[in-house]
Amino acid sequence: MGRLSERMDLSGKLALVTGASSGLGEHFAECLAEEGASVILAARRTEKLEALKARLEAAGHTAFCVKMDVTDPASVDAAITAIKAEFDAPCDIVINNSGVGYGSWYYETSEEDWQSTLDTNISGVWRVAKAASKALIDAGKPGSIINIASITAMQPAMMSAAYAASKAAVDHLTRSMAVESARFGIRINAIAPGYYKTAINDAYLDSEAGQRMKKRIAMQRFGEYQELDGALVLLASDAASYMTGTTIVVDGGHLLMPL
Asked: Is residue 259 situated within a structural domain?
């Protein structure tokens, strides 16, 4: 099977990252590009994608921007069609990263915020995985889809019922899709990050409540983006060729702590 470093090399792979305009998505795109993949940057805010594309190309990487709203089936299908037209190939790797979250008690959450969370975080994951999988199946190619879940899928967090419910659904959907797609050589796994500073949660993590919560993490700190790279590259690469339906938790031991 070759050396591990060779199997983890992503050279020649085409990788789609949703929600690539900021935060973890931006970092995931940079990581995959550094490991040799040609990256497709997808988001609603294309101006930010263009800035990232320019930065990646200046570093010698291949990048392509595509507008995608994961809550809109037509937008997702149009993006996958545009990728096929540009590269004459489906995506080998898909990072289902787009997500939103609203901090509120479940009994004060609005219908709009509830539906927006579910439509982006779970229905959006399904839409992108569906379109990308159909493209791979039509081309007769294997692939790797990585869904971004959360440790809130496994343990409740205050004021995040909609977000946690959507991420629990992502965790289970990952296993369901993995069973159905294995016969086509399409692996579907997930990463469940603990607490990392993003545009969604930075205000909370800086608050007094956030600092108290940090003390309940085994490692006594929040994660750094690059600490997700090992799980990301492993699942994206041929080194994980016998892994599917798995959720890798990267949380500094947060879930290990007693209640």
From this structure: no
